[in-house]
Amino acid sequence: MRALHADFARPAQWPVVALWGLCVAILTLTAWAGARDVQVWRALSAERIKTAELGAQLDAAQAVQSALAASAAKPPSFALDARRWMKLSAFDGSGVLRSIESAQVAGAKVVSIEIDGDSQRAELEVEVTSADVASSFLQALNAGTERPVWALSRLQIQGGTEVALIHGQIE
Amino acid sequence: MSVGNKRSAADVYLSEREVSMVSVSGSLWRHEDGALAACLAALVDRLREDDGSRGLRIWLGAALCRPVRLAPIAGARTRSERLKLAELAAVTQSGLQAPCRVSIDGAGGSDDAVAVVVEERVLSAIEQALASVKSRAASIQPWWAQALGAALKSNPTLRALGVWEGRALTFMTGDGRHVASAQTLYPVETAESASAAFARALVSGMISPDDALAVALDWSSSPDASQGLQEDKGAVFTPWVRRLGAAS
Fold first, then answer.
1. Does A7 lie at the interface with B, CB-CB under 8 angstroms?
2. Within this chain, do residues A59 and A117 fall inside the same structural domain, yes or no?
3. Which of A13, A125, B58, B87 lies at a CB distance of 3.0 to 4.6 Å from B140, suitable for a disulfide?
4. A28 is in which domain, residue-wise?
């Protein structure tokens, strides 16, 4: 024998209307969620663009501020020029030249004179026949001053000639 | 009375003159009346009191739902034509009143088709009754078929089974997967009459009593007297099933 099967119960059926309603509800929810996501995405994109623009503006403003700060730290060129002109006008160049001319020592010959008005310094190259001559020339330069203005900074032999390098601080 | 394991759904046994329900908790409720409508009305009242029973397994007695062994149908050309003729033959042989709903097992070409027949009025009455308490039937099956399945699980070489319940005796015989006979006798009022009828069926089929099993669904028996079917083989109402002829 074999087992016999018979079931006369009607299978549970979902009402067709309910099924359609469920489908419509699911579709509506899906569409609503999709539309909301699109809106959120668009808003997010707009915010990103706005943020990027604000960032660029901020960078530009910072660059301007940096430039202003840098320019404020540096003294204006006209002020520098004015200060230099004042120093130059206060510097007695002709007096320096006169004192050099007055220092006539045999065996000493002034080769070059460099005067820097900014630093109020002068540099002389003098060909001398010996170190004693160089010393005499230096004494002649400093003659009549309370404290020495000129100083021998170097004495060297170039091509058989002795050259003395003398610096002076003129105030 | 509470008997047996916890169930997933309440089991309802329904016959022409009685209705029994074993709730999910295992408690038994019974009602006996002279008509199916009165039995269903009592069940409805009971279900109204018991809010928990929403899905019910309905087990029909053989008084309402019967097997019919169909003879091979000659002359039918198509499967649908063969099914239609089988349905007509089943209703005629079952002794039930048309219109009926017929479920045919093995009608696809085998020559030992068995039809299970139930009257439409019974199914409609059950569905209407349950709908009135917003309940529904998870299944509506013949209890004898369920008993047959459980008996074959216990003894696959079983050659004959007799089931006496609700004043009806159903017996089925066969070898292997072949079904030699399937029939319901109604009414069979006493257990002795049922035993005698089943013994005659065994003799006519030349079947040894050792290869046969006869059980009775006896609600008045002690719930501990189960001797016929095993619950772990899928049987229901096992506490009230006993071997036919055994003392209750």
1. yes
2. no
3. B58
4. 16-74
The per-residue pLDDT for range A106-133, each reduced to its tens digit, is 888 888 988 887 777 889 999 988 888 8
B182 and chain A: CB distance < 8 Å anywhere? yes
C-alpha dihedral over B240, B244, B245, B246, to 10 degrees? -40
Strand bridging mode B18-22 / B100-105: unpaired
Residues A67, A90, single domain; the answer is no
Tokens linked to A25: 């509800």
Q: Which residue of A has its CA nearest to B106?
A: A4
Domain of residue B37, residue span: 10-63+121-243
Instruction: Say which DSSP state B2 is in.
Output: B
Question: Would you call the peptide bond into B99 cis, given omega within 30 degrees of 0 as the criterion?
Answer: yes
Q: Does B152 reach chain A within 8 Å, measured CB to CB?
A: yes
Decide: A8 and B141 in contact? Cβ < 8 Å. Answer: yes
* From B114, B137, B175, residue closest to A4, measured CB to CB: B114
Q: Among A16-30, A75-89, B81-95, B206-220, name the one with the lowest average pLDDT.
A: A75-89
**Domain assignment present for A27:** yes
Max intra-chain CA distance, chain B: 55
A90 and A114 share a domain? yes
pLDDT tens-place string over residues A18-66: 888 999 999 999 999 999 999 999 999 999 999 999 999 999 999 999 9
Are A37 and A70 in the same domain? yes
Dihedral through CA B166, CA B169, CA B174, CA B177, nearest 10?
-10
pLDDT reported for residue B109: 53
- End residue of a domain, out of A28, A47, A74: A74
Q: For this complex, say whether ipTM is above 0.90.
A: no
